[in-house]
Write a structure and sequence with these properties.
- With 255 residues, the chain is of the alpha/beta class.
- The protein has a single domain, classed as Divalent-metal-dependent TIM barrel enzymes (TIM Barrel), CATH 3.20.20.
- The protein is 44% helix and 18% strand.
- The strands form two sheets. Strands 1-2-3-4-5-6-7-10 form an eight-stranded parallel beta barrel, surrounded by six helices. A two-stranded antiparallel sheet has the order 8-9.
- The longest helix is centred in the middle third of the chain and has 21 residues.
- The N and C termini lie close together (6 Å).
């Protein structure tokens, strides 16, 4: 396994303009990361000039672009908006190709008011199938995150992935998002995972959060044959400027 970080970990600096994506790359080098996940929200431009400049900087800094991440929702009740969301994902598949990123993190969404979960699940399956068909000939994985809504349980995630039935539509395993049997649920989706978000905290049974046991998580991932990235997605209260570098060292001592 390799250790990376999502740009999202430094969102408070990126959204205020106190850090640029280029600055994030230099922070990644300072932390001795293997790679970076470049979150769509923080791109000031997706013009070729900017994308290729960013790609060049990553290469010269010795960083792999482990993936990209987009905010989307396949479960909009309006068919036109669902089509817009699918096109947004396709656009970011193309951006991923230009950056040399092997996978794109996507979301499913929740069940809209007035509709059934079965409808929301079918819309997501249809969206993932279409995006997977677009991604496959471009060599990019579409990685569905366990991110609440209709992906709040391991059963829900697995059913979606198996219903799509594409080797290019897999899972972004997020260690901090399962509220029911968190460690057991992570073990169940690990065989479907091509990338992972490592969070410092994990939900407790009965509510609240506690420090995640990464010795346990990494052992489980090893048992499942997982070889991909542990991409830090920091969400706890401490300033990421101090917390993320420390977490990097913790993960590097365990992998």
């Amino acid at each position: 396994m390799k250790v990376g970080s999502a740009a999202y970990s430094f969102r408070q600096y990126l959204t205020k303009g106190e850090m640029s994506l280029e600055g994030f790359l230099h922070k990644a080098v300072e932390m001795d990361l293997d790679g970076v996940e470049l979150t769509a929200y923080y791109f000031p431009s997706t013009d070729d000039d900017f994308l290729y400049t960013l790609k060049r900087q990553c290469y010269l800094l010795g960083l792999q672009i482990s993936g990209t991440a987009v905010g989307n929702r396949f479960t909009h009740a309006d068919a036109g908006e669902r089509a817009n969301q699918i096109q947004h994902v396709k656009d970011w598949i193309d951006i991923s190709v230009k950056l040399g990123a092997p996978c794109l993190r996507v979301f499913a969404g929740g069940t809209p008011e007035g509709h059934s979960e079965a409808e929301a699940r079918q819309w997501t399956i249809d969206g993932l199938k279409e995006c997977g068909e677009y991604a496959a000939p471009r060599g990019v994985f579409v990685a569905l995150e366990n991110h609440g809504g209709i992906t709040s349980t391991a059963d829900g995630v697995i059913e979606l992935i198996e219903s799509v039935g594409s080797e290019w539509v897999r899972v972004n395993l997020d260690t901090g998002n399962f509220r029911q049997d968190p460690y057991g649920s992570l073990a169940r989706i690990a065989p479907y995972s091509v990338t992972a978000h490592a969070k410092t905290e994990i939900p407790k049974e009965g509510g609240g959060k506690e420090e995640a046991d990464f010795s346990k998580i990494i052992n489980m991932l090893n048992e499942q044959g997982y070889k991909g990235y542990l991409s830090i997605e920091y969400e706890a209260a401490e300033d990421p400027m101090t917390a993320v570098p420390r977490f990097v060292q913790t993960l590097k001592s365990l992998v």
